[in-house]
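Reviewers of the previous submission asked for a worked example of the structure-prediction workflow described in the proposal, so we include one complete record here. The input consisted solely of the amino acid sequence. No template or homolog information was supplied to the procedure at any stage.
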Amino acid sequence: MDRDGDGRVGLEEYLAWMSYGFDQRDRNGDGVLDGDELLGGRGQPVTRLQHRAALAERFHRQDADGDGYLSARELLAPPR
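From that input alone, the workflow returned the following structure tokens.
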């Protein structure tokens, strides 16, 4: 996750790492997970923008000290 090796994970690093699953499921490469591409094979479509927004929200909740980075401790903490 820590691409630059600075011992912490910034938002862009987090988004890049966590978007891997979206990219794998988006079989037709259109930037939208349609029902058949979602886990369970059904549900409302999810755009890449929606997915990234949800990830960013999760990142900011995990950033307990509010410094804009996730430390190893913050990454290992239970979701907030």
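The two ends are 20 Å apart (CA to CA). We consider this example representative of the routine output the project will generate in years two and three.
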